[in-house]
Amino acid sequence: DGDKQISKISIICMFKNNEAYLNNFFFKVIAEFEETYDVDFEYYIIENNSSDNTRTLLKEFFKKKSTRSKLLLFNMKEDFRNIGNGKNYERLYNLAKIRNKLINNITPLGSDWCLFIDSNIFFKKEIISDCFSYAPSENNIGMLIPYTQQLFIPEIHKIPNMTKPTLLSHYYDTFSFYDKNNKTFWPYCAFEKCKMCNRNDCKDRTSIPVDEKIVDVSSAFSGFCFIQTDIINNKLIRWETLSHEVKADESICEHFLFCHMLRKLTNKRIVVLQDVDNIYRTY
Length: 283
Fold this sequence. Notes:
- This protein is of the alpha/beta class.
- Helices cover 26% and strands 24% of the residues.
- The protein is built from 7 helices and 13 strands.
- It has helices at residues 19-36, 54-63, 89-106, 127-132, 154-157, 229-233, 254-266, and strands spanning 8-15, 40-48, 70-74, 113-117, 121-123, 141-146, 149-152, 166-171, 178-179, 214-219, 224-228, 269-273, 279-281.
- β2 (40-48), α2 (54-63) and β3 form a beta-alpha-beta unit.
- It starts with 7 loop residues before the first strand and ends with a strand.
């Protein structure tokens, strides 16, 4: 982190029915992290009522980790309803509740940074050094987000003339993304490098040019982000949502309110690293 040696990173995850992701990717790349970096990694994971082998795999994983690491087993039998366009209040409220439950059970943490990783996010071991080459602490950055792309799959996305899984430079987490003027581009992404989005409907908004490497934003998450641990230790900065529409009970993204409190209480920057884009999300 610039001239400062990072001694400890807390890796924080929420998993449910992720047996294939854990076996085929997550455990392998975590092992590469530990082999590559002179950093103490600790792990904090919450598992919610999986119907596959996720819980057993995580229990075995934690047997080999330090006592500071922690696995929370959550049994909310009526899981959140992932309905509509993903903006449903019940879904967002429960996601925020689970994430807050995890954080409130593990804080205060003694690490330098927390790394949040969603399931089905794929990346190389170099992503840590790539992100911290931007020296976030020296540049007053409190939340550091690489450019997570969407992997488009022919059988799912039905894109004309696409015959194999393809990256089209589309920044996938459009729902949590608000530019520095608090403007959303949803359902489009804000980046000119994207080969998918036509932003003709995005009035009074300025798309982000390709050469803007560090993009200051009001809100973002992308399924993979670094947050300074002092921010996570602050109990006033948590995820929350609120309903703003009746028929579909649509709600504001829980990450927007988290980021709002982060900026208000710390005055730190939230940035997307447009050039750190060797990372993608799939289903």
